[in-house]
Amino acid sequence: NVDIDVAIFTNLTYEHMDFHGDMQTYAYDKSLLFSTLGNNFSEAKYGVLNKDDEYYSIMSKCLYHQEISYSVEDEAADFYAYNIKQYSENRRYKTTFTLKSPEGEYECQTNYIGDFMVSNVLAALIAVWLKGYSVEKLVNILPNLGALYGRMEILGEDLPIDIISDFAHTPDGYKKLLEATREIRKNKRTLLLTGMGGGRDISKGPLIGEIISEADYVVITTDSPRDEDVEVLMGTIEKGMTHKNYEKVWFRTDAVKRIIQLAEPGDVVILASKGREDYEILQGGKKVWHSDPVVAIEEAKKKFNVK
């Protein structure tokens, strides 16, 4: 019974199988959003859909209102981003692309990295455009938008290592994280920290382990283990690892400190699965403070003697 003016479909990936059972059921459940959008038919409603996702057609078929599509692959989409390039200025990473829109073509610049972030920018831009703003005005705003806390956030510009914090916690999320950072990691050693949460669907663990084996070294930990056996949680990821260059450190604060201890100048350290969450939930629901970025930067400044 909630009236929705603009609903966005970004993607559908392997997650929440403990609730939905399989991906087709998950897709059906998600499509219900686009088949309703509330009961107010006196105002225009829109579905903003990502044509690049394999479940796009399901959402499109279920949408009974106007569709606005976007893509970084299909030039037939209403909003299409191409000529995507990544570069850096004094270790500040940026992405440029050309946007084809109903109002013409524009050259765009953002402070984000990765094709999937370009895709997300398109989705957000369209949602605001549908509320009456011109594409040109929105394009001019893009360079002023800062980093998203915990989402492909690059930290420690004054450190001799790159630290990247991201919320990736699904196989697809890790895949996109590693793809987006390949240019940054080129000819550099990659250290990656990942954790599995308690009270969640752990069937994705082996898939995550296989994907993150792209990193040169992995520290496996937990992510709010709650009442779960921490060895079981870490073991689900360990099962998928394709090399032996990893270790398990169950308490996350200790794990973050450990990965910084292992880092050397020029390395890239990726802190995944938690982003900017500033707590851990332990046995019995006990909540304790923890922040990947804060712990990592404090430890790195001590290690490299940076004020």
Q: What series of H and E elements makes up the topology?
A: EHHEHEEEEHHEEHHEHEHEHEEEH
Q: C-alpha Rg, in Å?
A: 21 Å
What structural class is derived from the secondary structure elements? alpha/beta
State mean pLDDT (0 to 100 scale). Answer: 93
Question: What is the overall number of helices?
Answer: 11
* Largest β sheet strand count, sense and barrel closure: 6 strands, mixed
Principal-axes geometry comes out as globular
Distance between the termini: 54 Å
What's the count of strands? 14
Uncertain stretches of 5 or more adjacent residues: none
Task: List the strand order in the largest sheet.
Answer: 1-2-3-4-5-6
Q: Strand-residue fraction?
A: 15-25%
Roughly what percent helix? 25-40%
Description:
The protein is α/β, with parallel strands linked by helices. Helices cover 33% and strands 25% of the residues. The chain contains eleven helices and 14 strands. It has helices at 17-20, 23-36, 56-62, 115-129, 135-141, 171-180, 182-185, 205-212, 230-238, 252-262, 292-303, and strands at 6-9, 46-50, 66-71, 79-89, 92-101, 104-110, 153-155, 162-165, 190-196, 217-222, 246-248, 268-271, 279-281, 287-289. The strands form three sheets. The protein has a six-stranded mixed sheet with strand order 1-2-3-4-5-6, sandwiched between helices. A six-stranded mixed sheet has the order 7-8-12-9-10-11. Strand 7 (153-155) and strand 8 form a beta hairpin. The longest helix has 15 residues, at 115-129. It is globular and about 55 Å long. The chain starts with 5 loop residues before the first strand and ends with a helix. The mean pLDDT is 93.
